[in-house]
Amino acid sequence: MNHFAKSVLIAALFPLAFTACGKKESEVSAPAATAEAPSTGEAASCSAVKFADIGWTDITATTALSSVVLEGLGYKPVSTIASVPIAFAGIKKSQIDVFLGYWSPSMTPIVEPFLKDIKVLEKPNLVGAKYTLAVPTYAYEAGLKSFNDIAKFKDNLDGKMYGIEPGNDGNKIIADMITKNAFGLKDFKMVESSEAGMLTEVSRSVKNKKWIVFLGWAPHPMNVQQDITYLSGGDDFFGANYGEAKVYTVTASDLGTRCPNVNKLVTNLEFNLDMENQVMLPIMDKTVPNVAAKAWLTKNPAVLDKWLDGVKTLDGKPGLEAVKKYLGV
């Protein structure tokens, strides 16, 4: 995750950050008769496709992949960093067009109040993900194997459980467990920070062989960068099978009529664990996300055939040919 301070700053400016692309067609001035209008049937304002990025590296990666494809189609995608609730509020108001990171089931309680005002695409863009609590493998091997074991090792854990940015669904689940004294956790404290902040704490703890329990998920490079193990027994809070998750695409409710070509692309998007891990690794090493995404697409152009099925450029030309030319493949 990006630092929360950055998220707060941008979220505070959120209502001012959007351009005419967020307006309904009735609010956008018609192009002059002499102007060249895109032949996709979309308003010219659709060129600025607005994504929500909640600071999770996996969503940053998929947003970058999508953005590079849109650039190849002649669009000008932009990303806005925001917390999960702010992101959904923006989608509700059509100030945000697309969000690629609705993790189900953990995020569902946050999403439910918005469901009548947004569109969740029926088919997930990622399957086989997971999101639950994890520990270093040495702690697991010493007896901390399940949610029921956490309270037994309160002293080893300094009475702390590590989350990510405030407002995150995982943090809310941890807070709920503490409030309800689930698994005897009433005396624990949750430490909130960010993805980067939490992973720094995990790395520091592993280096010193200290015990730590934290939010873990896949896909993410943490699964290969650190020797970690996921805890069992959290089905009632994170979902069955170690928090097994599907990730869905969410769009503004009017995107299909306002920007049908963009809507077609995002409907086509499907990712997989290996793909996301490969794009995330350089991003974690400070490579600019779009640079990492473009490099991956250049080496793996076959994925474009499905993504660009029925998709055109902004000016109405064949999309696949244009994106391949943009990538130099």
Low-confidence runs: 1-38
Q: CATH H-level name of the largest domain... which superfamily?
A: Periplasmic binding protein-like II
Mean pLDDT: 90
Provide the gyration radius in Å. 21 Å
| Shape designation | elongated
In the CATH hierarchy, what is the class of the largest domain? Alpha Beta
Helix-and-strand structural type? alpha+beta
CATH architecture of the largest domain: 3-Layer(aba) Sandwich
Number of domains: 2
Our count of helices gives: 16
How is this fold's topology laid out?
Elements: H1 4-12, E1 50-53, H2 57-72, E2 78-81, H3 84-92, E3 98-104, H4 108-111, E4 118-120, E5 126-136, H5 137-141, E6 160-162, H6 169-179, E7 189-191, H7 195-207, E8 214-218, H8 222-225, E9 228-230, H9 235-238, H10 240-243, E10 244-252, H11 255-258, H12 260-268, H13 273-284, H14 289-299, H15 304-307, H16 319-327
Parallel strand pairs: 1-2, 6-7
Antiparallel strand pairs: 3-10, 4-10, 5-8, 5-9, 5-10
Helix pairs in contact: 2-13, 2-14, 2-16, 13-14
Brief write-up:
This protein is an alpha+beta fold and 329 residues long.
Q: How does this structure look, described?
A:
With 329 residues, this protein is of the alpha+beta class. It folds into two domains: 159 residues, Periplasmic binding protein-like II (D-Maltodextrin-Binding Protein, domain 2), CATH 3.40.190; 115 residues, 3-Layer(aba) Sandwich (D-Maltodextrin-Binding Protein, domain 2). It is built from 16 helices and ten strands. Strands 3, 4, 5, 8, 9 and 10 form a six-stranded antiparallel β-sheet that branches. Strands 1-2 form a two-stranded parallel sheet. Strands 6-7 form a two-stranded parallel sheet. Helix 2 links the parallel strand 1 and strand 2. The radius of gyration is 21 Å and the shape is elongated.
